Amino acid sequence: MGLGILALLLVSMLPYPALAESARDIARQTFPSVVLLILQDAGGQPVSLGSGFFVTPDTVATNLHVIRGASSGYVKLVGQKAKLDIAGISAIDEAQDLALLKISRASATPLPLAADDSVSIGDTVYAVGNPEGLEGTFSQGIISGLRKLDDGNWLQLTAPLSPGSSGGPILDSSGKVVGVAVATFSDGQNLNFAVPASRIRRLLSQRSDPMPLASISAPSSTTSTPVEAKATDGVIIRNLDWKNLHSRDSEYVFSIRNNLRESITDILYVTIFYDAAGEPIHSTVSEYTQVVPPLLAKMVAISMSHPSYPGDGVRRMTERMEMRILDYRIAKALDASSGQTRELEQEKSKRFLAENARRRGVKVTASGLQYQILRKGQGRRPDPQSTVVVHYRGKLIDGQEFDSSYPGDEPVSILLDHVIPGWTEGLQLMQAGAKYRFFIPPELAYGERGAGTRIKPGQTLIFDIELLRVK
Description:
This protein is mainly beta. It has seven helices and 25 strands. The protein has helices at about 20-30, 65, 195-205, 310-315, 330-335, 340-355, 420-425; strands at about 35-40, 45-55, 60-65, 70-75, 85-95, 100-105, 125-130, 135-150, 150-155, 170, 175-185, 190-195, 235-245, 250-260, 265-275, 280-290, 295-305, 320-330, 365, 370-375, 385-395, 400-405, 410-415, 435-440, 460-470. The radius of gyration is 24 Å and the shape is elongated.
């Protein structure tokens, strides 16, 4: 199964021009040693995402809670296609939420560890990780406090961390690792900590022959650690229901519940489809890009028209579905800079369009417009100055509908030279009576400006359009 969540190199958490030259150097030197972790269950389906980094040429450090509950997994180096299997666990420290993983066929450059107790409150630090499976993000913050535990101090951070960044390195201004990032959920709050680098050094001296990932036991109730629960435990999927299971008109409906005290967005989740024997037969990774307010929920409906929906064969065999939260973002972290938001949405669009172009029946024009022919027409074909009458439905790539002419059953009359470029080009491919589905890149839609509150800058749009007649 190919995971659509793997992306190209992206320095997204801080606008690149704003980075000091030394910070640019740190990012450039660090990325080759940072990995995205994909953890899987016994059926090979994803259970969690996380980050890690090489501390020896074939050993990756990460959080213990990232790998707990997994049966297998692999790592992917930032900016590279190769996937390296996790051979096993070389050492764990439950109290410090640390694990060292042996990586098959790896020969990477390890990151240098800072001296013990080398940071103080107020020091600038950089967090490197893989939020939402975006490889290689770089964010700046400071050490805001020290959390005293039985076995030493943890570092409290202001740098924004998503669950997918857990396990990534925290670097000082010289590029040395001062800690391992931990995103955790406690009492309705998403908290950001770092385990001091001294604990990694200690754990390296305790390595043994690799143990299977599945050998990790449940956490001890007596362990003194800030990690009360995985950060993804603060967001849950409930009320999953598939209506008209084996019909072409089927859709599945669910609600995303936010138990945090902050708004969240860009929620990454996996949907797994099982047959009557309980075996997984299909899975899809999707993203909900709307904002879910604190302590509230949003209902989501995914219809047959959504590109990630399984085909007829999978639908007929499906007897059960399961959904898992993989990652999300705190909404206020995105609001800090419209440029950050635009870059993130552009990256999501690139990933979606690259995958979608490989789907059966999808055609791509020279401009990058993608389309599927849902029904052919026999009538007149419009030109750029034509007025056309259409029915349409517009959705985002997460399946959320933002506009439609159908509720009132009143078709719309438009001038082709008065609409977004994707419509102008796409409608000229159609004949009257046809119905097409268009996947419109941001540069052929609303580009860097977006449209109102429903369409963010840099978003790809999906339109089902029926060309009723050409005037």
